[in-house]
Structures are given as C-alpha cells and as structure tokens.
Amino acid sequence: MVVNNYQNRNPGRHLERNIMSTSTPTPQPLNILAIGASRNIGYHVSLKLLRTGATVTYLLRNPSIFDNDSSIQPFISSGQARIVKGDGLVKEDLTRVWQKPSHVPTMVTSTISSSPSVRGTPKFSATKGFVFNPPNLVTLSLLNTFSTLPPSLTSTLKCIIISSAGLTPASHASIPTLLKPLYTYILDSGPHIDKIGAERVLHHLVPGWSWTATSGDDKDPSTALLPTDWQNMEGLPKEGELKHVVVIRPSLLTDGESKAEKYAEKEKKHPEKVEKMRKKGKVPYRVSAEEELGGYNVSRKDVAHFVVELMLKRWDEFGNKIVNISQ
Q1: Largest CA distance in the chain
Q2: Rounded to whole angstroms, how far apart are CA atoms 325 and 162?
Q3: Half-sphere exposure of 37 (CA within 13 A, CB side)
Q4: Alpha-carbon distances of 274 from 257, 261, 264, 265, rounded to whole Å
Q5: How far is CA 284 from CA 49, 256, 259, 263, 297, in A?
Q6: Positive or negative, the Cα torsion across 245, 251, 257, 260?
Q7: Mean pLDDT along residues 230-248
Q8: Which DSSP symbol is given to 323?
Q9: Which of 61, 176, 206, 270 would you call most buried, defined as having the most Cβ atoms within 10 angstroms of its Cβ?
Q10: CA 198 to the chain's CA centroid
Q11: Cα–Cα distance measured from residue 301 to residue 309, given in angstroms and rounded to the nearest whole number
C-alpha cells in the first residue's frame, strides 16, 4: 500500500519542508469542486482557497447552510463561491456539475465522512458497533463523482480524498494502545469500512496502486459496500486512467485550533525562536508518505492547512501518494 519512495527518518525535518515550503506555487486561480465541504475539513480548505483567489463550487444537499455564514457570503455574492444543490449519492446531481463549461473544476476535494452530523444518528448494535445509513456513503459518492467525470478530464483533474488512519494492518498496529478500542469497536465497524471501500475504488483507478485485502487475510470488507461489477460501471474511468490523486489519512480528528497557523504567526514575530523549535523537531504536525506515524490525533484545521499547502505548493512531492498526517 506504500506508494512513496521518499525516505525520511526525521519527522521534524520532514515537516519543516512541508509547512515552510518554497516550491513554485500552482498557477492561480484554481477552480475547485468541493464535495462534503459544508463543515469541518472541507469547509476550512475551501475558505482558505477562496481567500487565495480560487473559485470554489460547492455540492450541497442544503444550500441554505451558508445563509448566515459571514465568512462565505462575500464570496457567494461576488460569484467566486458557487453552490450547486445536490447529493453525492445522486448521480444526476454530479452530472450537472460537470456539464457547466464555466464551472468545470481543475481540482476536486472530497471530505465526505460517515458521521452523525452528515446522515442522522447512527444506530448502535452490540455486535456491529455504530451502524450508519447508508453504510457506503463515501464509497458511492466517490463512484458517482468519477463515473460522471468527462473523459477529457481523467488525465488532468487533480483529486484530494480524505480517508483515515488505521485502515491497513500496519496502520492499525501503529495506533496508540489507548485508542485501539475506539478504532476496533466503533470506527472499524462502520466509518472505516466505508473509507476502505472508497480507497478500493481509488486503487483501481490510479496507475501504480495495487490493492490487497486490508484485513490481512483473504476477506476484503469493502466487497459488501461496492456494487456488483462496479469496475465496469458506466462512465467510470478504466483501470489506471485517473492520473493525479492524493489520499490523506489523518489520525483521530479533533476540533482544536490550527497549530500550523500559530506557528506561522510566531515565525513572523520571532523567527529565531521558530528556527530553534525546528531544530528540536517541534512542529505543528507531522506528515509522511513513507511511514506510519502512530499519533493520537490531529486537528481538522491542521489537516486543512496541509491540504491547501499540497494544492498550492507541494503537489510535485506528494502527487499520486497516500499521505499520513498526525500531530
């Protein structure tokens, strides 16, 4: 499952490169399709991108969610932020997004999650843990997104998908002991299987990514979530045709502040202190496309910070890789 050949044995040094990058930025303005961005990581990513001059098209089941949002409203008024009413589970809604020539995205961010706030309250089962309805929200939304994608975009569109740590045997083994019950009995029973289904789809579409059953045996939990013969789904790109994808696997997500933003503010006022912090390996968060990080958590705002850095400055380093991120 590891798809990055970058060797790194110093997490602090690695983060210094990622957060304080001097690479040539992606040409502006970007045109972003944001799926699952009404809140959390997707919301923070889209707002940051709007402030850089990007155009963001939101696919929203409830367009009124931004009616009283003083941060988003100015961008909606100017036309920089566009709203398409629709549902990722409805293929026709995705089709409408791609059919507007002036709105066709150059990048897609998918931050859909199976959570109580997205599709109501999950049911609890003593044998299955929390059960979400539908159980394959992320998987089906991703299939609909790519099966409606115009063929002309398969080789140019850049896609960033938020997944989760703990999906593979190696990743699960690296989780701190205190968190293993949470992952084993709650997350693995529902949300994580959905993320596995989504990653199964991506491993089929991205060239050079090979899939093995994540459970460590011949049983693949994603099988139950995917439609029969999904590889031949009408409109879905053929194996290896999706050329530019990054999957981000964060540790347990929190609603804390962005340490990266505080780090940047501190550097402006006290650059010498920040330099000493770097040398000691004190960084806001760690990222690696080579190693499992085994961290406890990371804030949604810091994940959003990394996503924006990735889009604007770091694509050459992390393009077509699976990236772990943790505090």
Answers
A1: 58
A2: 11
A3: 29
A4: 18, 13, 9, 10
A5: 20, 12, 5, 7, 12
A6: negative
A7: 95
A8: E
A9: 206
A10: 11
A11: 12
Look up the pTM and report it. Answer: 0.84
Between CA 131 and CA 124 the distance in angstroms is: 6
Cα three-residue angle 204-287-160, rounded to 5 degrees: 40
Q: Strand, helix or coil at 64?
A: helix
- The answer to whether 122 and 130 are in contact (CB under 8 A) is yes
Average the pLDDT over each of 23-32, 174-183, 233-242 and give the range with the smallest value.
23-32
Neighbours of 233 (CB within 10 A): 17
CA angle 30, 34, 39 (to 5 degrees): 125
Per DSSP, the three-state class of 157 is coil
Who has greater pLDDT, 313 or 189?
313
Q: Are strands 55-60 and 81-85 parallel, antiparallel or unpaired?
A: parallel
3-state secondary structure of 167: coil
Tokens of 321: 């890789």
Tokens coding 191:
């949300």
